[in-house]
Design brief:
This protein is α/β, with parallel strands linked by helices and 238 residues long. The chain folds into two domains: 117 residues, Response regulator (Rossmann fold, 3-Layer(aba) Sandwich), CATH 3.40.50; 105 residues, Winged helix-like DNA-binding domain superfamily/Winged helix DNA-binding domain (Arc Repressor Mutant, subunit A, Orthogonal Bundle). The protein is built from nine helices and eleven strands. The strands form three sheets. A five-stranded parallel beta sheet has the order 2-1-3-4-5, with helices on both faces. A four-stranded antiparallel beta sheet has the order 6-7-8-9, covered by helices on one side. The protein has a two-stranded antiparallel ribbon with strand order 10-11. A hairpin with a 2-residue loop joins β8 and β9. The longest helix has 18 residues. It is globular and about 50 Å long. Keywords: DNA-binding, Phosphoprotein, Transcription, Transcription regulation, Two-component regulatory system. One of its GO terms (molecular function) is transcription cis-regulatory region binding. One of its GO terms (cellular component) is protein-DNA complex. It comes from Gloeothece verrucosa (strain PCC 7822). This is Two component transcriptional regulator, winged helix family.
């Protein structure tokens, strides 16, 4: 098991120096280790050296789209929170499609940003208590979940899941053959979310993304129980 440093590390990528410095100082004060970058090129170099646990990423970067950088970062398993002035629903959905774990629009409240970051780290840590009690791998025909690495493969090919998608799949796979309604999934996996109805819609969106990525478009593995919720039907849990 990989040992984390005492402080969670956050990298802030934003072309606005005032925003970068504000967020960096705020999270440093709240016991996080932080580094900042003003563009995608600098961010890539810093990412390799700093090895952050989470990246707060602006969409509008001077050298390229933050969506592209988000997609690259998510392949490493690092958490990404998109931060942008774009409020259009299409931009928000594109952020999630590119792998973002959460999304916050400018102007923003630092305490809300802190709460979202805390919730993302909480979701990531949900896998740790089970790692010592379950086998290192969960195998369902061609689908394999590596518990220690928090990685999923399909036919030995890596599946690029977001943190939330992995946590949802992991939770359902380790609690199979039982129907979970959306509110239960939010409580168990998501985070404390005051916008309950909005969060429940997000559950449906992310379940759909998981199905697409693991080749379960017909819903044979993750079943929809109409009027109730979702159930992971385990064909062979090893």
């Amino acid at each position: 098991m990989i040992l984390k440093s005492p402080k969670n590390k956050i990298m802030v990528v934003d072309d606005d120096a005032a925003v970068r410095n504000l967020i960096s100082r705020f999270f440093s004060y709240n016991n996080y280790e932080t580094e900042t970058a003003a563009d995608a090129k600098t961010a890539r170099g810093l990412f390799q050296k700093f090895q952050p646990d989470l990246v707060i990423l602006d969409v509008n970067l001077p050298d390229e789209s933050g969506f592209k950088l988000c997609q690259e970062i998510r392949k490493t398993g690092v958490i990404v929170l998109m931060l942008t002035c774009m409020t259009d629903t299409n931009y928000v959905l594109e952020g999630f499609e590119k792998g973002a774990d959460d999304y916050l629009t400018k102007p923003f409240d630092l305490e809300i940003l802190k709460a979202k970051v805390g919730a993302l780290f909480k979701r990531r840590s949900l896998t740790q208590p089970y790692a010592d009690t379950l086998q290192n791998r969960l195998i369902f025909n061609e689908l394999m979940i590596d518990v220690e690495k928090c990685e999923v493969t399909l036919n030995n090919n890596p599946v690029a899941l977001t943190t939330l998608e992995y946590d949802l799949l992991y939770f359902l796979a380790t609690h199979p053959n039982r129907v979970w309604d959306r509110a239960e999934l939010i409580t168990s996996v998501w985070s404390d979310d005051n916008e309950q109805e909005k969060a429940e819609r997000k559950v449906d969106v992310h379940i759909g993304q998981i199905r697409k990525k693991i080749g379960d478009l017909d819903g044979k593995l993750i079943k929809t129980v109409r009027g109730k919720g979702y159930m992971f039907e385990s064909p062979a849990l090893e």
